[in-house]
Design a protein that fits this description.
heterodimer, A: Aminopeptidase, globular, B: 254 residues, Aminopeptidase, GNAT_dom (chain B), transferase (chain B), acyltransferase activity, transferring groups other than amino-acyl groups (chain B)
């Protein structure tokens, strides 16, 4: 859905995703990294524009372009979203995330997670933030474990992946009581004094 | 940030009917009957806040109609024409071929009887055979042993525990158990439901076939029938069973 939320800090800026970001995003993706996503690979500008439009139009989804502020020009380096935002139910999910390979292993993902989770728990006052991933994507699962999220179960044949096959979705979550520990972990990774 | 839910209000016209019940599109005409049957205890497992009175139920019905990917129903008992509850197919993602059954509540007066298996049969049949989904999800509060038991009795597979999924009345968070049924599992689950809905069905299936219309009843046939009845135990004959048998007899004559 349309929104005007901007989150900045720790070397990243999350701004409302729009079609103006499509040109910068298209070159960042490749088939290998897109395997666990549930939409076709958007590797040209037209396909990426369609992908962005779909995210922006999805109800209860808050989509962001992610800029790397530690690099000159603050380039757009990826996308992340809140989705299934149900504030009356005290919960939301974070997902539909991808970053260009150049920023894998840098501050970008932990910084974005820190901003998203801080806003969810401390500004929205949510009780639960969930994250899901493709059961085959070991890197993604490792990242969720490293975050301190807890595994809750596996949804069988839940998603149709980019290659058209049905795959399992693994389900992780962080509860409000667990957030301080998760936050401290992220801050330590980012090298902040706290 | 404001979500424009009203943009997605969709009325559907799907009616599902079998085994003594009709699922018809949930509408404001159902508000009095549904409001009357609801109290805080009955609503305990539901995701939505307790609808208070008819105004609350009107809002609940409007919210149901406005939920994207939701097909809400009122459940009507065909024998007496009474509205006995509500249920829905929710979160339908056609491209992912999945849907969830939820937003279910029934009048206390019919708890433990056939309304739930009948409704589940109709919804699952429509999901797999009408919508053509591959996966149907179901959820229940971790503390709602009645609902959990009902889902397990269906034969759904438990997949996980969603922690702190929603608020309880007293402000504590409650966990939700998630289940699913996949398309290859539907034929067997369908059989189980049909056997529950028609206690005579599994007995008839195990009865020896008549050799011809004019076959005489030999002592051997009598013994086989007696054995089949003994195997399945005494058959309770609730009032509606008689009506169902009459309807089956009418269908056979066609």
């Amino acid at each position: 859905m349309e929104h005007d939320l901007v989150l900045t800090g720790h070397g990243v800026r999350l701004e409302p995703l729009g079609v103006q970001h499509a040109a910068a995003l298209a070159p960042l993706v490749d088939a290998e990294m897109w395997r666990g996503m549930t939409s076709p690979l958007p590797d040209d500008e037209a396909a990426m524009t369609a992908h962005v439009e779909r995210l922006v139009a999805t109800p209860a989804m808050v989509a962001f372009a992610v800029r790397d502020e530690h690099t000159d020009g603050s380039p757009v380096v990826g996308v992340t979203t809140y989705y299934d935002v149900a504030s009356a139910m005290g919960r939301c999910e974070i997902g539909n995330t991808f970053y260009g390979r150049a920023v894998w292993g840098t501050h970008v993902n932990p910084a974005a997670k820190l901003l998203l989770l801080t806003h969810a728990f401390e500004d929205w006052g949510l009780a639960r933030v969930a994250l899901r991933g493709d059961a085959r994507n070991a890197r993604s699962l490792a990242a969720m474990r490293k975050l301190g999220a807890r595994y809750e179960g596996t949804l069988r044949d839940h998603r149709v992946s980019a290659d058209g096959t049905r795959q399992d979705t693994v389900y992780f979550s962080i509860l409000a009581a667990e957030w301080p520990t998760v936050r401290d972990g992220l801050l330590a990774r980012l090298g902040d004094a706290g | 940030m404001v979500a424009a839910c009203s943009d997605f209000r969709v009325e559907h016209d799907l009616v599902l009917e079998a085994h003594g019940f009709r699922l018809e599109p949930l509408a404001q005409q159902h508000v009095s009957d549904l409001a009357r049957m609801v109290d805080a205890d009955l609503w305990a497992g539901m995701s939505a806040p307790l609808p208070e009175g008819e105004v609350g139920m009107m809002n609940y019905i409007e919210d149901s109609l406005a939920l994207p990917g939701c097909l809400p129903f009122a459940v009507v008992d065909l024998v007496d024409g009474q509205v006995r509850g509500s249920t829905a197919l929710v979160d339908h993602h056609p491209e992912a071929r999945r849907v969830e059954i939820g937003r279910t509540f029934y009048d206390r007066a019919v708890w433990g009887r056939v309304i739930n298996p009948a409704s589940k049969f109709l919804l699952l049949q429509h999901a797999f055979e009408g919508l053509g989904v591959y996966r149907v999800a179901l959820r229940a509060d971790a503390r709602n042993t009645r609902s959990l038991g009902a889902i397990e009795r269906l034969g759904a597979t438990r997949e996980g525990l969603l922690r702190g999924y929603r608020d309880d009345r007293d402000g504590t968070r409650v966990d939700s158990v998630s289940f699913s049924i996949l398309e290859p599992e539907w034929p067997e689950i369908r059989e189980r439901l049909l056997n529950r809905l028609d206690p005579l069905r599994s007995i008839e299936a195990s009865m020896p076939p008549l050799a011809s219309v004019g076959a005489s009843v030999t002592s051997e046939v009598v013994q086989e029938v007696a054995d089949a009845l003994l195997q399945h135990g005494p058959v309770p004959v609730p009032p509606r069973a008689a009506a169902r048998r009459q309807r089956r007899a009418r269908r056979r004559r066609r």
